Structures are given as C-alpha cells and as structure tokens.
Amino acid sequence: MPQFYLIPKRLARKAPFLVAIAQAVEAAGFRFVFWLIQLLSIENARRVSAFAFGLLGHYSDKAKKAKTNLAIAFPDSTEEWREQTTRGIFRSLGESAAELIKLEQIWAERDERIDFVMHPDAEALMKAKKPAIFVTAHVGPWQVAPLITKYYDLTINTIYAPESNSVVAELMHALRQFLGERLVSTDAGLRPLIKELKAGNSINMAMDTRLDSGKLVPFFGREALTSTSAAGLALRTGAALVVARAERLPEGRYRITMYEPLTSRNPDAPQKDQVLDLTAQINGYFENWIREYPDQWICLKRRWPKAHKL
Predict the structure, then answer these.
(1) Which helix (H) or strand (E) holds 25?
(2) Which residues are bridge partners to 253 per DSSP?
(3) Among 24, 87, 92, 179, whose Cα sits 20 to 30 Å from the Cα of 292?
C-alpha cells in the first residue's frame, strides 16, 4: 500500500480509486510548497512551514501515534502535555521540511549559520577520510546533520525509504544532489553498504524508527524493535560508528555535533551481544535528545510493540 500524506491509509484501502487522485493532488501540493519555500528566507520558510504543519498535522491520523509514543516514553506526563507536545512535533516537522528545501542555502551560508562541534577522535577519522557509519535520530533539524560530512568532503551513502509518489521522490532526489550523496534504498539490503564501507566510503542513517525485522533493544526502559544494522556493519567491516546530532539555535543558526566513536563495552563477547550493546548505546543518546526536546521528536509511527499501546 503506497504511503499517503493527505488521506488516511485505511481510507485508501477501502477506496482504491482514490490512490491515483490522491497522488496527483499530493504531487501538485508538494510542487507548490517547494516553489513557495524557495522564495522565502530560511527563517520565514521555517515559520510558514511550522505554522502550516502545526495547524494541519493535529488532524491527521499520525497525531494519535505520536501521543501514544509520548505516553510510553513519558509515563508520568499528562494528556494536556502530550496534546501540546504533539502540536510542537508537527511544527518541528514543518521546520524540518523547510530546512530540507533550503539545505543548499544553509550550506552556502554555513560560516554564519553552523557551529561544528567535533570530538577529537571523530574529527581525526573524518580528516583521514576513514570509513564510518554516522547515525542520527529524527530529532530537531536532522536534515541538517549530513552537512558535516560534506564539510569534510566525504563520499557518503545515505539510507532512505523510497517515496511511493514519483513526483515527491523526484523532488527529494533533486534536493540531495548537491550533497553528493549516493542514495541507497532500504530495500537494497546490506550488500551494497558492505561494498561501500570496504571501498573506504561512509554511510549516513537515521535509525530511531521501528524496524519490524529489527531486534528488541531497550528504549526508554521498554523493549523496542530496533535496527541493529549500523552496529552490525561496523563490527563486520571495521568501520567507525559515530553518533551525529543537529540542533536548532537562535536566529536561524545550527549546531552539528559529532560524538566520540562508539566501541563495545565487552569486546570479548560474541558479536551478536556486542551488536546489541552498541545499539543500546545509540538508543541512550537518542533518549537524552528526546528528553531535552520532546516536541522535536518526529515520532509519527508506532515505536513500541502493540502490547505497549495505551
């Protein structure tokens, strides 16, 4: 079933004739939004997009999933807090959409807009252009985080979920072209990623969403299906495993942080145990970011098993 932005998935299942109509409407809508955002300054683009997403997102079927995720992550929270935070999540999603469209301009103005904060070991491996797997979460301006790999002129492969709408996919690919990224579909499996890492290239991936084929790893104290591919690839190929974070600062500025490369806390353990340990360490970073900015956590899909649904 294709992914839709303007109609609920359950409605598309009941009325298949809506599929073509919905995709045509979405394509026209996205083209208009892209055109409008390009005309605005970065700050105004973020404001307009945040307002629009905050206004409309509350009525989507994804709002309920966001509130469920918040209730599990923050069990002592109130319904009122979850309602307000969910509105903030949609506003943050709107800002992220604008940031993606304006990414090339943000890069062009990087000296005024971006602070790069590097752990010395992460900086050393990037200067040496050693293969690495950079992981981040859908928190804050995650679309801005890959700019640090362009800053160090790395050859990067970015994992992405293919868009079902061909027009949206075309627009997204065009936005990424200036980064020089090679886009690798999630459907491609691990083989092309192993090949790239062994060739000395690097990988970007956001890995905080549920992966049905993943392993159960603690996340906010509850077992959650989590992708372990980043840790597995690092151990299999010897590539560094580095957590990257982007944050919004006042006056349209950003901070991109590269943390110390992760290592297994028990290097003598079986590889499968080391994979789980490294993935748990990554989840720990993500938890801290979400606790700091819960209204910037783009959690619009079910994160935990249905048994935890509230």
Answers:
(1) helix 18-39
(2) 249
(3) 179
What are residue 34's phi and psi, to 5 degrees?
-60, -45
Give the separation between CA 183 and CA 180, rounded to whole angstroms. Answer: 9
Angle CA 266–256–47, to nearest 5: 135
Give the tokens for residue 91.
Answer: 């506003």
Structural contact between residues 215 and 279, judged by C-beta atoms closer than 8 angstroms = yes
Q: In this predicted structure, what is the pLDDT of residue 158? A: 80
In angstroms, the first-to-last Cα distance of the chain is 26
CB 244 within 8 Å of CB 207? no
Q: Report the alpha-carbon distance of residue 53 to residue 88 in Å, rounded.
A: 10
How many Å apart are CA 54 and CA 51, to the nearest integer?
Answer: 5
- Is 253:144 a contact under the CB 8 Å cutoff? no
What CA–CA distance (Å, rounded) separates 296 from 45? 17
Helix axes 62-73, 79-101, angle to 10 degrees: 120
Q: Which two tokens stand for residue 120?
A: 């010395």
Q: What is the mean pLDDT of residues 92-113?
A: 93
What mean pLDDT comes out for the span 147-159? Answer: 87
Decide if 275 contacts 169 (C-beta within 8 A).
no
Q: Would you state the pLDDT for residue 192?
A: 86
Q: What does the CA dihedral 53, 56, 58, 64 come to, rounded to 10 degrees?
A: -90
* 76-113 CB burial, b ≥16 within 10 A, e <16: eeeeeebeebbbbbbbbbbbbbbbbbbbeebbeebeeb
Checking DSSP bridges between strand 253-258 and strand 240-249, what pairing results, if any?
antiparallel
Q: What does the pLDDT read at residue 163?
A: 64
Take residue 193 and report the two structure tokens written for it.
Answer: 């990623």
Of 106-120, 265-279, 296-310, give the lowest mean pLDDT range.
296-310
CA distance 126 to 288: 25
pTM comes to 0.87
For the chain, helix, strand, coil in percent to 5 are: 55, 15, 30
